Amino acid sequence: VLLMAPALMAWTWWLAGSAFKPNLSQAPTQPWRLLLSEVAVQYGGLWLLLIALSGLNTAHEKLTDTDPFLHPAAGSDYQLRQLPAPEVIQYAMQHSTHPDAAFLGQQAALGATFDLPAPFDASYSLRYQSSHPANKLRLIDPTTETHWIFSHQHMLYQGVDGDSNDVVGWLGPDGFHNEATPPPTRFSSVPLSGDGNFITEANKLYHIDWELQRLDLLYQAATEKFIDTPIVGDNVSTLMSETRLFIFRTSDLLQLDFKPQPRAIAAIPSPDNPKYRRIVVLELINGYLVAVQTDSAPASFAADYAAFDHAQLQVFRIANGVAEVEAIANLPLPPNLDDVIYSSFVMAPGIRLLTDLFWGWYLEKNIERTLPVPYVSFPPYIWLLTVLVSVASATCTGWLLRLTTLPVRTKAFWIIGNAFTGLVGLISFLVGHFGPLPRPVPALSQEQRLA
User: Fold this and answer.
1) To the nearest 10°, the Cα dihedral for 164, 133, 203, 318?
2) Cα–Cα distances in Å, from 107 out to 97, 101, 203, 263?
3) For residue 214, which phi and psi values (nearest 5 degrees)?
4) Phi and psi based region of residue 422 (left: phi greater than 0; alpha: psi -120 to 50; beta: remaining)
5) What is the reported pLDDT for 231?
6) Which end of the chain is more exposed for a tag (fewer CB within 10 A), N or C?
7) Which DSSP letter does residue 180 get?
8) What does 349-405 look like in DSSP terms, one character per residue?
9) What is the DSSP letter of 321?
10) φ, ψ for residue 155 (rounded to 5)?
């Protein structure tokens, strides 16, 4: 914020001094300055149009009772999130061609399913520099009401009395310390704390016994990085890493002086930049059936229409003690939203492409999410509308410039540029540049000046 605020003020001041209405009778004296101003104006115009369109679309959905969140399409990502856990597996089995699909669907109706909330690893800063407590960075001792808040400075949990705010101790990977001085053994990375009884740090899983003031290392994976704390159920508990799902017996995790081992470890394929929306586990006689609902949710401020092509429901069967998983179903899910998500591409294809390029570079996305247009299954009429908007913008620009005395290359710059930026380019050209201009004062000749 401290860096962005002065930069934005400087940019605003620079734009305020730019000539937004240059004399079209002559070429601009500083083309680069005009081009940078044009990009800023058109980007702002795109957002104004999108905000207006979004407001109209929201009002239409409310008036017609077609809100996709409240009334999701059949079989869509939103609908499956709202179904009970057994019905999610049953839906997948109904659309699966696996020979055991019908039998497993019956097992889902009769057996006990475990519905996991989606793992969430973004409770603290992406750079791990956040100094304030977040949901996954604090613990509360239920026996003393002491607050244990993770300190980035010391890489330890700092115990703070709930009434006096005095420091009462420290919690590190080697356990509790009651002295005021921080102990030398620190966490090597920022840990995550869940329901108050477990901590995960990189590839390690710890259990806290508050009554005994004891921290035990339960399990250490070989090369994994856990992205959340365990989800503890009555019989089954799960733990997610960046690539695999670990399934434990809940009784094993809660047993003192015992090193639990996973009953099953499953490598779960997922799209780039996955967001696990829901995980359902069904315990079988000799293993587990796991349904994973994922999508590639937007990771930028721009609407990421590529995300809506990648939502899917995958079901795997995992045998106890076997690392390989058997794919039972892999169902692509229909988009959650209607075609309004393509509005930015239709109205301003060039600005949209530049926006995707910027966020793809800034967030280090792969090529599919940096240039999503070639990878998205656009409806045919979306392509047609985009081409028509670009042609109409170029045609109107050319017609408006027909009477000007600009050089041919300058006219071509405006025509091609407005074809690239679409509707917002045409509006920006009309409002910001093609307005009534004061006639330039003709230069006086030497004879006139002497007279």
Assistant:
1) 110
2) 17, 10, 33, 20
3) -140, 140
4) left
5) 83
6) N
7) S
8) HHHHHHHHHHHHHHTT--HHHHS-GGGS---HHHHHHHHHHHHHHHHHHHHHTTTS-
9) T
10) 55, 45
Q: What is residue 391's predicted lDDT score, i.e. its pLDDT?
A: 94
R_g over Cα of the chain:
30
pLDDT, position 451: 52
Residue carrying structure tokens 């508990």: 237
DSSP string of 66-97, one letter each residue:
--TTTSPPTT-HHHHHHS-HHHHHHHHHHT--
Q: What is the reported pLDDT for 336?
A: 56
Sheet architecture: strand order including 325-332: 113-116, 275-283, 287-295, 312-319, 325-332
CA distance 417 to 409: 12
116, containing H or E segment: strand 113-116
Does the pTM of the predicted model rise above 0.70? no
Tokens linked to 123 = 């409770």
For the chain, residues with pLDDT lower than 50 are 1-4, 15-21, 27, 121-133, 271-273, 297-308, 435-444, 449
* Residue whose structure tokens are 């839906």: 91
